[in-house]
Amino acid sequence: MSELSVILDAAGVVAGAGGLGYAKVRAPRVYWSLVGLPVTWGRFTLSYRSTMDVCGLTVQPSALRAFVTRNVARREVLPVPPKVRRVRGTATGLRVTLRLPAGLEPADLAAASERLRHAWGVHSVTVAETRPGYVELRMTGYDVLRYVRMPRGVRPSGLAVPVALREDGTAFVRDFRAVPMALTLGANNSGKSVYQRNLIAGLARLPVALVGIDCKRGVEQSAYAPRLSALVTTPDDAAALLDVLVKEMESRFDLLSTHGVSDVWELPAEVRPVPVVVLVDEVAELFLISSKKDEERRERIVTALIRLAQMARAVGIHLEVCGQRFGSELGRGATMLRAQLTGRVVHRVNDKQTAEMGLADVAPDAVAVAGLIPAERPGTAVAADSSGGWSKIRTPHTSREQVSAVCHQFAHLVPDFPALDRFRPHVPTTTPAPGPSLVKPRPVTE
Ligand SMILES: Nc1ncnc2c1ncn2[C@@H]1O[C@H](COP(=O)(O)OP(=O)(O)OP(=O)(O)O)[C@@H](O)[C@H]1O
Fold first, then answer.
1. How far does the centroid of ligand 1 lie from the alpha carbon of residue 72, in Å?
2. In whole angstroms, what is the distance from residue 111 CA to residue 278 CA?
3. Where is 403: in which H helix or E strand?
4. CB of 323 closer than 6 A to ligand 1?
């Protein structure tokens, strides 16, 4: 009898271990919650002081603190690490808020992040300054970009859309008020369209006018027609549409001057014009010309885009430009326009120059990271902006049908916009088969 129970116990242990091993690979989130989190929390608590000490993240205490904490027996004053203010477990990792003592700065912790990662046995450690004097150590227990699941509860609001997951487990939010104009670059099949889909799925739920310029004959954006205020699919129509948008910008500036304000957000809500997001797919199509007679059109388009990129932020018109490359080879005006598009998302690229076009002027440290994105991880990108900060992100995989269904669902949010009426796309009468997001609008999240 006792032999049988030993065998059963052993079988249970093996099955349990096998199950955990399986969960670690196939369901890392479950494994982290059951095993990784308690183990890491314990390891962090037990080794915090010694780890910070060997990583050189301690300082001599102030005179008062030295008096309180001195080792009476040895008459020595021990160096102190940053004070732990809060430890919080999440579905992807562990977050620790630290109060920095005088003499330590966030960059010191960032420089030691590899050593901290090894000491606590986690997948990554990133350091974010949350307010002056405080940093958050964001540890992830596993590679969160392998199977992307957005954090619970993040939703589009205002003019901000969560579009992807950052390496540290937080949402990457495309906030048009903070970064009004942006550029997305990447090689073929790197995930640019899926990035734009996530963006459109979020924007579709907000009170904005969406304008599409898709000179690949509208193959991508025509699916979103029900929620678009305008869609053009040829360079000629794009030139006409951009002229209308420039006129709209000028009349909005007149409105600002009538009310004596400098920004649409300072206007009273009842007169504030609706924000406009212009989504340009494959921007090179607008720059390239095949004959001399196209030159005048190109000039019109480039001038309009540059004027919008330079000034339209204040009147609530935003550009979101997407392309494979965006450099001087596109001709006059290209680099000038690029300099105005300060939000950058660079997917896998085929050459270092493309990574430099996207990142060298805003986040030079990130150029090498973009060059290392593997082809088998489509949707992975480096996101940066003119603040100098950057992060590695990956979008959740979203199909064209899912986003098309969201656009049908929120078609009633298309605002009144008479100036764009002649560019309103034809909307097919058949409703697409509802994707999961139509049945129950999943937050752009888990
Ligand atoms: N986040 C993601 N997760 C998983 N697969 C993805 C992701 N993003 C893109 N893919 C897949 O990678 C492939 C290419 O994606 P996408 O069409 O977005 O690339 P692209 O850069 O727009 O390509 P192109 O320039 O040729 O239009 C598609 O099969 C898509 O399903």
1. 63
2. 39
3. helix 400-409
4. no
Q: Is the CB of 193 under 6 A from ligand 1?
A: yes
190 is in an annotated binding site: yes
- The answer to the question of whether 27 is labelled as a binding residue is no
For the CA of 164, the nearest atom of ligand 1: 1
Spatial CB neighbours of 368, under 8 Å, sequence gap ≥ 6: 355
| Alpha-carbon distances, residue 10 vs 19, 20, 24, 59, 384 (angstroms) | 14, 15, 21, 50, 52
Q: Supply 385's token pair.
A: 């902006």
Distance CA 320, CA 417 (A): 20
* Residue 47 identity: S
Task: Report pTM.
Answer: 0.84
ipTM over 0.90: yes
Question: Which two three-digit tokens encode residue 371?
Answer: 């060059």
- How does pLDDT run across 236-261, given as a tens digit for each residue? 999 999 999 999 999 999 999 999 99
At 80, the amino acid letter reads V
Find out whether 188 is annotated in a ligand binding site.
yes
Domain residue spans in the chain? 2-140, 160-439
How large is the angle between the packed helices 37-54 and 113-120, nearest 10 degrees? 130
DSSP H or E run through 323? strand 317-323
Closest-CA residue to 102 (of 128, 118, 82): 82
CATH class assigned to 160-439: alpha beta
Q: Are 437 and 258 in contact (CB under 8 A)?
A: no
As beta bridge partners, residue 131 has 134
